[in-house]
Design goal:
Layout: E1 2-6, E2 14-17, E3 27-36, H1 39-46, H2 49-54, E4 59-60, E5 64-72, E6 84-87, E7 90-91, H3 97-100, E8 111-112, E9 124-128, E10 132-134, H4 141-144, H5 147-157, E11 167-170, H6 174-185, E12 191-195, H7 198-206, E13 210-213, H8 219-226, E14 232-237, H9 242-250, E15 252-260, H10 272-277, E16 281-284, H11 292-302, E17 311-316, H12 320-329, E18 334-338
Parallel strand pairs: 11-12, 11-14, 12-13, 14-15, 15-16, 17-18
Antiparallel strand pairs: 1-2, 1-4, 3-5, 3-9, 3-18, 5-6, 6-10, 7-8
Helix pairs in contact: 5-6, 5-11
């Protein structure tokens, strides 16, 4: 089968012929139809410090996808050939304390599809049946291919009650932009999103958010215009940028709640006294809740949440280079690769 492979430990990605993955008795085999490119795939493409320390080569990468079931192992029940599915990219152990308690997103032995084991940028993918999510045929396949990052946005945004609250999102990447639409749908009053990239701020504005270009103005100016006196009730950190996180801490009301998805560098400094004296709650977010997040995002889309505008580029997988160039340019939202013939 064809697959996009991180073949050598250096920048790039290679379209290769590789064996179809083997299927165990608890596994499902999926024929991939659409995939989308994650920031993580771009890190692996660019071969940054994190990927060179984490990803063994050769490795078929990719973990955002939709496809159809073409086979399953003897122990698998509840699925049929031809069903439209996506899947949770975190494969969990099933026997640690959190797994046993049903909090599988907090598993201590997580392994990542397309990071630690063969991924979805391939004609066929094999994952355990316990990671498969059955999809609604009425939802556009391009949109389903983005369920993994949409799930990050849903998990983060729904961490705290948003009804009537003012929400600050730092980072208008694809996940931040999707989170802004989710926060509005969940009942927030004002949703303000920041970035320094005009292309992305424009995309966020199109999807209904109030935007702040923090290279030109301040969040406080926008607060004043909106009449937000004491600060934001909820913060969603989705940039991974130290300055953005500090901006957020400065603009939270006392007792405000911050959900952190963005991956900060180890040496990010903050003024801890603001956290203590202002009574700020910070919650770390990793991945998606299995499968509560998948349920919520499906039903929100079924009831009118529209994230299709965040998909800005579409290519055939043989044109993957154009897709990675678009992602690296900063002038893209989600990039979808089609695996249709
Ligand atoms: P992205 O890199 O596409 O978006 C981040 C955005 O932050 C960019 O548009 C960038 O211009 C912006 N930014 C940079 N400096 C800023 C500043 N000072 N103020 C405001 N914005 C600024 O990332 P994404 O794919 O949308 O993901 C969002 C974040 O979540 C990333 O840090 C990513 O690594 C992380 N992530 C975490 C998980 C998890 O499970 N915790 C999963 C997926 C992604
Ligand atoms: Zn576990």
């Amino acid at each position: 089968m064809n697959a996009l492979v991180k073949k050598y430990p250096k920048e790039g990605l290679w379209l290769e012929e590789v064996p179809v993955p083997e299927m165990g008795k608890n596994d499902v085999m999926i024929k991939i139809e659409k995939t989308s490119i994650c920031g993580t795939d771009v890190h692996i493409y660019n071969w940054d410090k994190w990927s060179s320390e984490t990803v063994p080569t050769p490795m078929v990468i990719g973990h955002e996808y939709v496809g159809r079931i073409v086979g399953y192992g003897d122990n698998v029940k509840g699925f049929r050939i031809g069903e439209l599915v996506s899947g949770e990219g975190h494969i969990v152990c099933g026997h640690c304390r959190n797994c046993l308690a049903g909090r599988r997103h907090l598993c201590i032995n997580t392994s990542g599809v397309g990071v630690n084991r063969p991924g979805a940028f391939a004609e066929y993918l094999v994952i355990p049946a316990t990671n498969v999510w059955l999809c609604d045929e009425n939802i556009d396949r391009d949109v389903i291919s983005c369920f993994d990052p949409l799930g990050n946005a849903v998990h983060t945004a729904l961490s705290f009650d948003l009804v009537g609250e003012d929400v600050l999102i730092t980072g208008a990447g694809p996940i931040g932009i999707m989170a802004s639409a989710i926060a509005k749908k969940a009942g927030a009053r004002y949703v303000v999103i920041t970035d320094v990239n005009p292309y992305r701020l424009e995309l966020a504005k199109k999807m209904g958010a109030i935007t702040v270009d923090v290279s030109k103005s301040t969040i406080r100016d926008t607060m004043q215009q909106l009449g937000i006196k004491e600060g934001f009730d909820v913060g969603l950190e989705m940039s991974g940028n130290a300055r953005a996180f500090n901006d957020m801490i400065d603009c939270m009301e006392h007792g405000g709640k911050i959900a952190m998805l963005g991956i900060q560098s180890k040496d990010t400094l903050i003024d801890w006294n603001k956290i203590v004296f202002n009574g700020i709650n910070i919650k770390g977010i990793y991945g998606r809740e299995m499968f509560e997040t998948w349920y919520k995002m499906t039903s929100m889309i079924q009831s009118g949440l529209d994230i299709s505008e965040v998909i800005t580029h579409r290519y055939h997988y043989t044109d993957f280079q154009k897709g990675f160039d678009a992602m690296n340019s900063g002038k893209s939202g989600k990039v979808v690769l089609s695996w249709d013939k």
